[in-house]
């Protein structure tokens, strides 16, 4: 009887979590399309990142209409990764998480080569508040840009920086394998 009660509780909780994900995605209200440097992109996938049962942010990946999410990782493809935050996060915590992930993904020589560009990107960060919307945009012609609440706060023409920084969410050994899988699924 106790096992049945536990199983029933788990099933009810999992249903509540699914409803919560749908509600969080409605709250994030990601547009069906976005434009990056005159290129129209369509939303390919969206998901919610949970950490220790807390919703941290919703994420959406945009790419060209004829391109699959996995193909969007190609450096020649325009893409947009948009994050809508549900929690307050200190700027220093975001920077620490980024460096921790980059160190897992790249060798020391690559990190040293990227250090000044990553530091410049991080210098544009502010503390994150619930409702803030950040987006990393990449276009082969114009490079990487970071938007905060619709305003561009950083740009770089370094394609290696764009690949590495978008890789925090989209490459293996990133912040979350589950988030990566959800964003890149077909």
Cα-to-Cα separation, first versus last residue: 41 Å
Indicate the low-confidence ranges by residue numbers: 1-19
- CATH class label: Alpha Beta
Helix/strand-derived class?
alpha+beta
Helix content: 40-55%
Overall domain count = 1
The CATH architecture is 3-Layer(bba) Sandwich
- Choose one word for the global shape: globular
* Element-level helix/strand string: HEEEEHHEEEHH
Q: Which radius of gyration do the C-alpha atoms yield?
A: 17 Å
Mean of pLDDT: 89
Strand line-up of the largest beta sheet: 1-2-3-4-5-6-7
**What is the number of strand segments?**
7
Give the amount of beta strand, in percent: 25-35%
The oligomeric state is single chain
- State the major sheet: 7 strands, antiparallel
Number of helices: 5
CATH topology: Chalcone isomerase
SSE inventory with pairings:
Layout: H1 2-28, E1 33-36, E2 39-51, E3 54-63, E4 79-85, H2 91-105, H3 108-123, E5 133-139, E6 143-148, E7 151-156, H4 159-170, H5 177-184
Antiparallel strand pairs: 1-2, 2-3, 3-4, 4-5, 5-6, 6-7
Helix pairs in contact: 2-4
């Amino acid at each position: 009887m106790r096992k049945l009660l536990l199983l029933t509780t788990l099933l009810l909780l999992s249903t509540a979590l699914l409803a919560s994900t749908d509600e969080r995605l409605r709250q994030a209200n990601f547009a069906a399309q976005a434009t990056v440097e005159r290129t129209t992109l369509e939303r390919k996938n969206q998901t919610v990142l949970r950490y220790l049962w807390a919703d941290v942010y919703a994420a959406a990946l945009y790419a060209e209409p004829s391109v699959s999410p996995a193909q969007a990782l190609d450096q020649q493809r325009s893409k947009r990764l948009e994050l809508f935050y549900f929690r307050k996060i200190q700027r220093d915590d975001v920077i620490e998480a980024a460096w921790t992930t980059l160190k897992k993904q790249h060798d020391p020589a690559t990190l040293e080569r990227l250090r000044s560009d990553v530091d410049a990107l991080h210098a544009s960060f502010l503390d994150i508040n619930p409702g803030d919307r950040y987006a990393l945009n990449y276009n082969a012609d114009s490079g990487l840009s970071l938007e905060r609440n619709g305003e561009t706060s950083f740009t770089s023409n370094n394609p290696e920086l764009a690949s590495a920084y978008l890789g925090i969410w989209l490459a293996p050994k990133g912040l979350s394998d589950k988030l990566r899988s959800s964003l890149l699924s077909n």
